[in-house]
DNA sequence: CGTCATGATTCTGC
DNA sequence: GCAGAATCATGACG
């Protein structure tokens, strides 16, 4: 501790200064209080105080210069609006007297379609950000409060010894608040950046379109063509297909949505594909001896549907199929709904003009011709 | 580089 | 909330 500066330093002995400091530190609190008390009771105190006031009057810089430099909180408002729009902050809890909620129209170019982002990963990460944001915000607010109280007390205490007007205290509090709000702004900015990064990552990910693997396409097509009368896989069936194809359930839903509409629009184009898959499916099923195609729909009651048609002969099978399809208890409510609407039924028709040779079991080809 | 195929998104109706 | 329809965006291919 008492290390002298190396070399021949001419300055005052550092150890002396250090010793003085240590002496102050060693001073007990009582001792300090006693001194303060003594000073307060000094007979010259009032006179001294008035002198101090006078000096201050002459030298003090005008206070109002310091305070009202409040910049237009445009940026803060922008950040607030952005956080609100992103769902990080909530509309309540905004004490800043500004035009708090313009959120609906705020950030016009920034984030066009918030409600579209319902991805669970995105939401999870967003809520993580929100959590951190709020906990930090709370910390800052608490620290600000504590610091303000401390400084106010200190100044009030000091006002007995030196001229400190309430206005000055107020001003000081204002300065503290502005410092803390600067920190808050930084926090808000960081949060916004984090959300933006997350958003762009997510959007990038979903914009990237990759073709499904052959396996996935095959699995989906097999199901589609083997359930051509009612290509609405139940939730379980979708899960199964997703698992088999190595894709997500929503991708399965997308695929079926696209497939149905595109098939309906241009059935001729899909005939060849249908031949391939229905032929394949039936080949598979005949191999095992179960008409319902075990691979494409293991756990779906609707599998049984194709059964009867492997046994019926061509004529009239389509009608029977239609009728059955509409009567059969649908595995998922959605299918029932769509059936009720008659959405798919009208479109099923001209299926296979060329059914696989020697394949009486082909549901679809038999169904139509 | 243009075109087609295809996965994803958006809008609308029920 | 789901399905159909339209549309967008990107990959594959000649």
Automatic annotation (TrEMBL):
Q: What does the record give as the DNA-binding region?
A: 205-267
**Gene that specifies this protein:** PBX4
Annotated InterPro entries: HD, Homeodomain-like_sf, KN_HD, PBX_PBC_dom, TALE_homeobox
Record field: transmembrane: none
The Swiss-Prot or TrEMBL record describes its family as follows: Belongs to the TALE/PBX homeobox family.
Please list the residue ranges annotated as the PBC domain.
Answer: 9-204
- What terms describe the molecular function in GO for this protein? DNA-binding transcription factor activity; sequence-specific DNA binding
Keyword annotations for this protein? DNA-binding, Homeobox, Nucleus, Transcription, Transcription regulation
**In its keyword annotation, does this UniProt entry include Secreted?**
no
**Which CDD domains does this chain map to?**
homeodomain
The family database entries (PROSITE patterns) matched by this protein are listed as: HOMEOBOX_2 (PS50071), PBC (PS51978)
Q: Where in the cell is it found?
A: Nucleus
Q: Where is this region: Disordered?
A: 329-369
Q: Where is the Homeobox domain?
A: 203-266
Pfam families in the cross-refs? Homeobox_KN (PF05920), PBC (PF03792)
Query: What is the scientific name of the source organism?
Result: Prolemur simus
Q: Does the keyword DNA-binding apply?
A: yes
| Record protein name field | PBX homeobox 4
